[in-house]
Amino acid sequence: MPEGDTIFRSAATLRRWLAGRAVTEATTTVEGFPAARLVGQRVEAVEAQGKHLLVRLGSGQVLHTHMKMTGSWHVYRSGERWRRPRSEARLTVTCGDRVAVCFNAPVVELLRPGAERVHRALAGLGPDILAVPLAVDEIRDRARAGAPGVALGELLLDQTVAAGIGNIWRCESLFAERHNPWTPQAALDDDQLCSLFTTAARLMSAQLGPFTGRGLDRWVYGRAGRPCPRCRAPVLARRQGEMARVAYWCPRCQPLAPAPQGPGAARGPKGS
């Protein structure tokens, strides 16, 4: 699944190519999608909200796409050969000599003005993990409003706490901060919890430079059975949570921490 950094780059590319231009043509294979309504509208802005991409139009309507496991946006000059088969195109938006194509996205919808406030997926999103400045206090408060026993590996994937973190960066952030994916959030004090999300933001922000085609340098993600880069112990892998995403961690560098005893035991700053 594309994570927040991938969607952020896609939004930046679409913004650079389309913002300020009028839609001259739109075609779709999505049943019921009103592509004709896009024609003539000006692209006012393109934004990433976590894993969601929003194209804001002059009418106040919003083109909302969610890539999930399969989707991607490409941009081309008119007449340029596409890098994916045309049969995979869900939506094509042309602005003069520039063409934006949404391939294989499961969610493609046009929202009426104001609909974001009540949208089932958008309304409850937490702060974007790549926003500057990071709303770390709000993220902490949203995390603490949930169950104290929720595992850190599940907390990081909860888009209502912070939007944009996916499986790669939850694993890498936990490794960087030396926390076990199954450690309950109550085992961390507020400073540690804020540090965990700040680290996720830092690691993801580092991916926002120009795409080079090189693979990501990963410490634990996808490295089950290989030696930990710190201690050389074998990296472990196991499915976690309702989504059953595979968590990767080093059992030596990331020991399981139990929840502290007593109400509010984890709420004070470190050293208190």
Q: Give the helices and strands as they follow along the chain.
A: HEEEEEEEEHHHHEE
Question: Measured on Cα atoms, how large is the radius of gyration?
Answer: 21 Å
Low-confidence stretches: 211-215, 267-272
The proportion of residues forming helix, as a percent range, comes to 10-25%
Number of helices: 5
Percentage of residues in DSSP E strands:
15-25%
Overall geometry comes to elongated
Number-wise, the strands total 10
Main sheet record: 4 strands, antiparallel
Which strand order do you get reading across the main beta sheet?
1-6-7-5
| Class by SSE composition | alpha+beta
Straight-line N-to-C gap: 40 Å
Mean of the pLDDT scores?
91
Structure description:
By secondary structure, this protein is of the alpha+beta class. Mean pLDDT is 91; it is low at 211-215 and 267-272. The chain is 21% helix and 21% strand. It has helices at 4-18, 136-144, 152-157, 167-177, 190-205; strands spanning 25-28, 43-49, 52-57, 62-66, 72-77, 89-95, 98-103, 107-111, 236-240, 245-249. The chain contains five helices and ten strands, in the order H-E-E-E-E-E-E-E-E-H-H-H-H-E-E. Helix 2 packs across helix 5 and helix 4 (167-177) crosses helix 5. It is elongated, with a radius of gyration of 21 Å. Strand 3 and strand 4 (62-66) form a beta hairpin. It has a four-stranded antiparallel sheet with strand order 1-6-7-5, with helices on one face. A four-stranded antiparallel sheet has the order 2-3-4-8, with helices on one face. Strands 9-10 form a two-stranded antiparallel ribbon.
